[in-house]
Design a protein that fits this description.
20 strands; 1 helix; mainly beta
């Protein structure tokens, strides 16, 4: 099934287009040895947040506004709010109490242990990568590695590398207590890729998998629905938001 959209803004702003996330084959590529890599935190960072300024000329659309940087939390989320708090206690999306949590590749109570760092780099295509390498839970030897990639056109990818449990439960390494998805600043648009309620891990595990939200004022994406559901497309600009939905019915063979 192909889902296509066209957004026509009535004001001279760049809209944010929100779409369902889909699995893609983009690999997790470690950025730790790149010459331009930036250390965002000291090793051992826990319940911390810091601001990462994008390269000159790069502006990312979120919440109907363009942003020149992003707040990075050691607890596995990004926020475009410079005043964001480092919430370690994750919840389901939408979360209007913790509305500063915008992009959540693995929002959970995690930390960078003694040998771990949280990194950022700008790639040759202009995309910006934020990487949480060798993250742990409760100092129990887990080795959790994941990235967010922000593309110039507003697309987003969550990429997962090694997600080894160490002494924690293998389910936890695969998101059984994590929140994975996104929400806009007002909590009026959101997408839940996974919420680890009731200790449920991500189906099939996270290791060596990637997920993408396509973006842009016009385009198309191929979806493979396995169940009857609603597929929304929302656009937001300058305080205005509109959504359209495509209802899909999957028939039993």
């Amino acid at each position: 099934m192909t889902l296509s959209w066209t957004v026509t803004p009535n004001v001279e702003w760049t809209p944010t287009v929100y779409l369902p996330m889909r699995e893609v084959d983009s690999p997790f590529v470690d950025i730790s040895t790149r010459p331009n890599v930036v250390d965002l935190f000291e090793a051992g960072a826990d319940d911390s947040i810091t601001w990462f300024s994008f390269a000159e000329g790069f502006l990312f659309p979120w919440g109907g506004e363009l942003h020149s940087g992003v707040a990075v939390s050691s607890d596995g989320f990004l926020s475009f709010d410079p005043a964001a708090w480092p919430y370690h206690w994750n919840g389901p999306l939408p979360d209007r109490v913790r509305g500063e949590v915008h992009l959540a590749p693995f929002w959970d109570d995690i930390r960078a242990p003694g040998g771990g760092r949280i990194l950022a780099a700008v790639l040759e295509d202009g995309s910006h990568v934020i990487q949480w390498p060798k993250m742990d839970r409760y100092s129990r030897g887990a080795d959790l590695n994941f990235q967010v990639v922000l593309f110039p056109d507003g697309a987003i990818e969550y990429r997962y590398g090694t997600m080894a449990p160490g002494c924690i439960d293998e389910l936890e390494a695969n998101g059984s207590s994590a929140t994975i998805g996104y929400q806009n600043p007002s909590g009026s648009v959101w997408y839940v890729l996974h919420y680890g309620a009731d200790a449920v891990a991500f189906p099939g595990g996270l290791e060596n998998r990637s997920f993408r939200m396509d973006a842009g004022v016009a385009g198309s994406v191929t979806l493979h629905p396995t169940a009857t559901g609603v597929y929304p497309v929302c656009a937001e600009v300058a305080g205005y938001r509109t959504c359209e939905v495509l209802e899909v019915g999957v028939l039993s063979p």
